[in-house]
Amino acid sequence: DKEVRAIFLRLFAQLFQGYRSCLQLIRIHAEPVIHFHKAAFLGQRGLIENDFLTKVLNGMAFAGFVSERGPPFRTCDLFDELVAFEVERIKAEEGNPPKMIKHVRELAEQLFKNENPNPHMAFQKVPRPTEGSHLRVHVLPFPRINEGRVHQLLQEGLARSQGAPPATRGDKKCVVPAGPPVGMFI
């Protein structure tokens, strides 16, 4: 799963290399609006006639991508690092499949670590029921729930959570690296 995601991450990083240099911040509204200059992006990369990339850039998914990833000050992630710093590596690996596979595996490992920051947590597996277990008659009915006890536990949990500090990830915002200019990817 992670390797397939890493391949797509790498593909989109290659497709959108230099996109940040074609972002324009328009400040005529109360809140600034980020606009992507499609013609400049396609023209500088020599892909004006490319129907696929033109359709990708005109799609709603790309508009969401620009609005989410356009702000210059936000939390950076693996995609930002690929677009900004791994340009030369990706170019060098184009003709060398073993190196490309190695890079994909490294990316997959990073994706796995991002989703599972604590590798020591054990996940308990629920055993499958044995064959014929549904035919047994000694299964006890589910006990009745004590509404008073449930309400008491909820109130105790609420009281504890109000005094506890909010549980948030430690994502630090930073200036997103622009990476190389678009003209470099012709």
Automatic annotation (TrEMBL):
One of its GO terms (biological process) is regulation of Rab protein signal transduction. GO terms for molecular function: guanyl-nucleotide exchange factor activity. One of its GO terms (cellular component) is cytoplasmic vesicle. Coiled coil: none annotated. Residues 1-76 form the UDENN domain. PANTHER family: C-MYC PROMOTER-BINDING PROTEIN, DENN DOMAIN-CONTAINING PROTEIN 4. This is MTMRD protein. The lineage of its organism: Eukaryota, Metazoa, Chordata, Craniata, Vertebrata. The gene is Sbf2_3.
